[in-house]
Amino acid sequence: MVHLTINGQVVQANDGEMLLDVIKRMGIDIPAICQHDAVEPFGSCRLCTVEITKADWDGWKNYVTSCLYPVADGLIVNTHSETVNEIRKTLLDLYLARHPNSLFVRKLAAEHGVTKTSYEEIPDGDDCILCGLCTRICERMGFSAISTVGRGHSKEVAPPLKEAPPDCVGCLACAQCCPTGHIKFSEEGASRSIWGKQFEKIACSKCGKLTITKEFADSLSETRNIPREYFDVCDDCRRKEIALTMGRLAQWSREEETV
Amino acid sequence: MKSRLVVTPNRCIGCRTCELACSFNHAIDGKPGRSRIFVMGGGFKDLWVPVTCLQCDDAACVKSCLVGALRRNEETGAIELNQDKCVKCMACTAACPFGCSIYDSGQDQVVKCDLCGGDPACARFCPTKALEYKPIAQVKPAQVKVKAVG
Ligand code: SF4
Ligand code: SF4
Ligand code: SF4
Ligand code: FES
């Protein structure tokens, strides 16, 4: 257990926790867009930067990404000092130049008082801020279907050789977690398409309701040792089935009672 | 784990008070959540079955979650879903053999019974004791262990 001061308030934290975890727990709002609890912190967006110091640092201060900075005894943290706010504004100013068409970036920047970039805009800039959350999540799920390819301005997230990724199962986790909504997918009837690959969803064998993709179910069944038949019936019909099974038992005990 | 949620269908009168209690107890910013308990027809006249998560021992939802968002709370015995870890892949909703891991479209999140952190609202409000949260010692052995058999 360690004790530290955040924005003037003394708080307790567990050893090994990151500053950002404590800041969030206190309900303090700072932007931290490349962070997701399903994966290890990565430190790429830098928006979670905070100011730290200690009583014996002689007024010396440091600026660190709170998602990657472990808590320590006696740390004095300021999440919104003047310098921190300036750093965030500068970052958002740069993001705005690189992604002038991203609604997400524009909204976040505006929330921090940046409505126009002071740098040269990249007019056709896309929505991807290259935070790598999608690739890290896909890797965490065990698929590693996509990765960051290229360098400098041509750097982007893509499947290998930019062809339909053989290892993608169409679970949509990447798209669900992308902070900017850059990853597009489409659904039409039972088919789903993402990263240029086509998938077919499972239709419940009782009612036809569409659930996860066949590829995802096959993979889960194989790697997680879950009977494949579990995935053939949807949740609604499962509940109906169990109600009827329990109903039969209940009816049977009712009859027992009356004879 | 000290207690277990025990369901006695023959006492259920189909009033759906448990569903309401569940919804309201899982409200976010005043917006009710989707009920994690379902009052279903039992297939016979005047027979209802409140269907809810059995917190299985070898749970299919836990096995299906590739990011470790589902974990048992050893205190309450409930398998809890950590929203900050969930990547909304829907694997658990497809894997649960009882259909008790569900998508709440209103709150846009995957949800399941968490035994309300150890004081289940459904049992508290059930007027007929069809739902009871009982100390393990008072539960019949047959009701204690549950395995996920589909
Ligand atoms: S949809 Fe494909 S690329 Fe995206 S996380 Fe799932 S497996 Fe990976
Ligand atoms: S596609 Fe989205 S999640 Fe992936 S790196 Fe780009 S912004 Fe991040
Ligand atoms: S939907 Fe969430 S809790 Fe369910 S398996 Fe996927 S990540 Fe885990
Ligand atoms: S959340 Fe810390 S650098 Fe992005």
Biggest chain contact: A-B, 44 and 39 residues
Question: How many beta-strand runs of chain B?
Answer: 8
End-to-end distance of chain A, in Å?
64 Å
**Helix fraction of chain A?**
25-40%
Number of strands of chain A: 11
Q: Note the gap between the termini of chain B.
A: 24 Å
Key features of this structure:
heterodimer; A: about 260 residues; alpha+beta; Ubiquitin-like (UB roll); 2 domains; four-stranded antiparallel β-sheet; B: alpha+beta; Alpha-Beta Plaits; two-stranded antiparallel sheet; 8 strands; binds iron/sulfur cluster; binds FE2/S2 (inorganic) cluster
Helices and strands, with pairings:
The complex is a heterodimer of chains A (259) and B (150).
Chain A: E1 2-6, E2 9-13, H1 19-25, E3 49-53, E4 62-65, E5 76-78, H2 82-98, H3 103-111, H4 133-140, E6 147-149, E7 156-158, H5 173-177, E8 185-188, E9 191-194, E10 197-203, E11 210-213, H6 214-224, H7 235-258
Helix pairs in contact in A: 2-3
Chain B: E1 3-7, H1 17-25, E2 38-41, E3 48-51, H2 60-64, E4 70-72, E5 79-81, H3 91-95, E6 101-104, E7 109-112, H4 121-125, E8 131-135, H5 141-144
Antiparallel strand pairs in B: 1-8, 2-3, 4-5, 6-7
The complex binds iron/sulfur cluster (SF4) (3 copies) and FE2/S2 (inorganic) cluster (FES).
The site of one iron/sulfur cluster (SF4) has 13 residues of chain A, from helix 4.
Walk me through this protein's architecture.
The complex is a heterodimer of chains A (259) and B (150). Chain A is of the alpha+beta class. Chain A folds into 2 domains: 79 residues, Roll (Ubiquitin-like (UB roll)), CATH 3.10.20; 107 residues, no CATH class. Chain A is 31% helix and 18% strand. Chain A has 7 helices and 11 strands. In chain A, the strands form 3 sheets. A 5-stranded mixed sheet of chain A has the order 2-1-5-3-4, sandwiched between helices. Chain A has a 4-stranded antiparallel sheet with strand order 8-9-10-11. A two-stranded antiparallel sheet of chain A has the order 6-7. In chain A, a hairpin with a 2-residue loop joins β9 and β10. In chain A, α2 packs antiparallel against α3. The model of chain A has no long low-confidence stretch (mean pLDDT 95). Chain B has one domain: 2-Layer Sandwich (Alpha-Beta Plaits). In chain B, the strands form 4 sheets. Chain B has a two-stranded antiparallel ribbon. In chain B, strands 2-3 form a two-stranded antiparallel ribbon. By secondary structure, chain B is an alpha+beta fold. The C terminus of chain B is likely disordered. Chains A and B meet through α5, α6 and α7 of A and β2, α2 and α3 of B. Bound molecules: iron/sulfur cluster (SF4) (3 copies) and FE2/S2 (inorganic) cluster. The site of one iron/sulfur cluster has 15 residues of chain A, from α4 and α5.
